[in-house]
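Q: Hi! First time asking for a complex rather than a single chain. Here are the components, and I think there are two in total. Is that enough to go on?
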Amino acid sequence: MIETVAILVSMVLAATPLLFAALGELVTEKSGVLNLGVEGMMLAGAVTGFAVAASGYGPWAAVLAAALAGAALSSIFALLTLLLLANQVATGLALTMFGIGLSALVGKPFLGMPLEALPALPIPLLSDIPLLGPLLFRYDGMVYLAVALTIALHLFFRHTRAGLVIRAVGENHDAAHALGFPVRRIRFSCVLFGGAMAGLGGAYLSLAYTPMWAQNMTAGRGWIALALVVFATWKPLRVLAGALLFGGFTMAQLHAQGLGIAVPPEFLAMLPYLATVLVLVLISRDATRIRLNAPACIGKLFHPDD
Amino acid sequence: MKFAKWAIALVVAAGMTATAQAEPLKAAWVYVGPVSDHGYSFQHDQGRKAAEAAFGDKLQTTFVESVPEGADAERVINQLAKDGNKLIFSTSFGFMNPTLKVAQRFPDVKFEHATGYKRADNVSTYSSRFYEARAVLGTIAGKMTKSGTIGYVASIPIPEVVSGINAFTIALRKVRPDAQVKVIYVNSWYDPGKEAAAAKALIDQGADVIAQHTDSPAPVQTAEERGVWCFGQSSDMTRFGPKHHLTGVIENWNEYTVAEVKAVLDGSWKSHDTWGGLASGMVKLAPFNPAMPKDVVEAADKVRDDIIAGKLNPFAGPIKDQSGKEILAAGKNFSDGEILGMNFYVEGVQGNLPK
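A: Yes, that's all I need. Here is the structure of the assembled complex.
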């Protein structure tokens, strides 16, 4: 039983960076912008967070700096695609490559440096409950933050006017514009939010998961986060479930090897992607459901004079 | 006018040949990672620095870091040869074919390729018997484990990694006959996230000692956090696990590099293959953790000294395969060729070797 709890905990930890990045991308996409630069923004966050923490400014300053770094990188994307009307797919891909290179350059002096991991913050009383305590209430602060943001975003899109406005902008920017909403400004802030969240996801890796800086240490998690948004059909709570599932697949593949189970590990490694494809096929069967979930204006350029 | 040009050209050319004789030997290094990775490329760069220190102004060195294996490598090596480097160290397995191609184009340039198996008249190869150090780690693991389950974070199922797992397991079971080794491959040499996750999975499955054959310190960090013993890789990783890092396999190319540069300088260089172990100093052990009990240190020192003295072969028979069938009789040793092509697990390793 103790082992099961430990395995579930390791799943949650593996899911956390994905959850941050995917929630950010979800908000970006809800506003009708597709930013494929998640991987690059995560790396910017990872290296900035590590640099600030390693320079002795404390973990929370590091987390904040990581969010700012992610947002800063995403502002380049926002300028190019929203103001200068560059193609979003190409710009996003370029942002990823730029982020990989820039983070490697900035991170050079920090290679091979040890760092104290983000401290665990057990919640008093609750963390002493047998089984449930270690399973739910003994994480570091960023894990709680990720879960809290999931719930907040769920409520935000469901019950607030601002959430509705973002959805309107993502569904039909011309109509939103005609109603007098500042489409570009709203999209700009959503892209910045997405960048900040990706930065947090990266920082979780370099500050808590494996407290160190290594070139390209996100190792494709930005792309998983992108898949996760589609997998979750643009719903925050489903992103949480999906992130846990993806984290679970990551751990399951390793556990299967350790137990000597004869399923090829390569097969288990591709399961999350297979699941994404499967979900895409399933939701695509029903045209109305896609229309209900996917923001209709995603990836489309908006020009206020049109 | 024309004559004047020729005359000037001749004088310049003569001047260049004259200075060329007094010029230092130009040597270049090509690394697969950044030199500051404190791991594989870092150790190779230590060799370059040792050569610089040994030969002073007789040697002029340059290096190119983070060179991807493949077409880029050929361009980089070619450019270095064109720039007048007379000795080029290409230090990763994936540089093998590019090195040989460039070597054909520049027959008067000497090449040193690490961990490969293809040679030419102007291409030498060198590598280390890492498995010898892993036999020492296995001995320590056998003494330190309580659960009898050892976790092994491995990179890619190639003979170098498999022979390391086997040497480790054979030594382990000499100390603790019922011990088992659980292996998880992360399919990468450097993926901190996945290496940490693999170490966690192994610990959750009951391992109380973690060994690794991947390059990042993530498994050491994870072991430190979870309070289990661990071994590092490539360079001294004590700072990532000050309490639980027992020791580790360290690559040391310094003496070899100095010797090869010297051979080129005095004209005695010849193409050859070097596969050095603990005795040659090409493989070393990181400083032992002071928390290691005295009898464990003694046992480890004895295995190391016996291997150095040639009294102990980590692959001495009898050796059984996973099904318990004897595959090597007592009194026999595996040959170098058999070790270099090892593609099976010995008794005591759990799971199937991915093919």
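A: Chain B touches chain A at residues 34, 36-39, 42, 66, 151, 182-188, 190-198, 200-206, 216-218, 221-222, 225, 239-240, 350-352, 354 (CB under 8 Å). Let me know if you'd like any chain examined more closely.
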